[in-house]
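Pipeline run #58 for the internal structure catalog. This entry was flagged by the ingest filter as a single-chain record with no existing model, so it goes straight to prediction. Upstream metadata was stripped on purpose; only the residue string is passed forward. Reviewer on rotation: M.T. Logging verbosity set to normal.
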Amino acid sequence: MKSSEPADPDPGSCDSIPAALFTTLDDIPIPKSYKAALASEHKEHWIAACQAEIDSLADMKTWLLQDLPPGFKAIGTKWVFDIKYNLDGTLHRFKARLVAQGFTQRPGQDYHEVFAHVAKRATIRYTISMAAHPSARLGQLDISTAFLNE
């Protein structure tokens, strides 16, 4: 029995789901090194992301260029790459972060104090309770570079 109307899609099929939801995170390979980023077909995007990171670090004045004291070696860095997607699966931006290889630091020689932010449990509970209030409006914020400068 033939019908002029199209058949309803099988409930288990993906025909009725927007194609954007099928975007996999493997569509664009994420480089593991700067050298791999330069060899990528998306080289210009990775270079722009690296430049944006360097500009951001310079704008925040996160370092001063100085000569190393005798007997010291500079702490190495590594580029870490990622891709940010919008909720609909479309590409948002290429992201690059320059991270210090802090595991090479020696206490008392390369640094003298350690500081790490810690949130108190009471603060977290209070924030969650405020967000759970029926009249509360929640939002999201994406901070590209966050540093505490004295």
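catalog note: The chain has three helices and two strands.
catalog note: The helical segments are 34-39, 43-59, 121-132.
status: ready for reviewer M.T.
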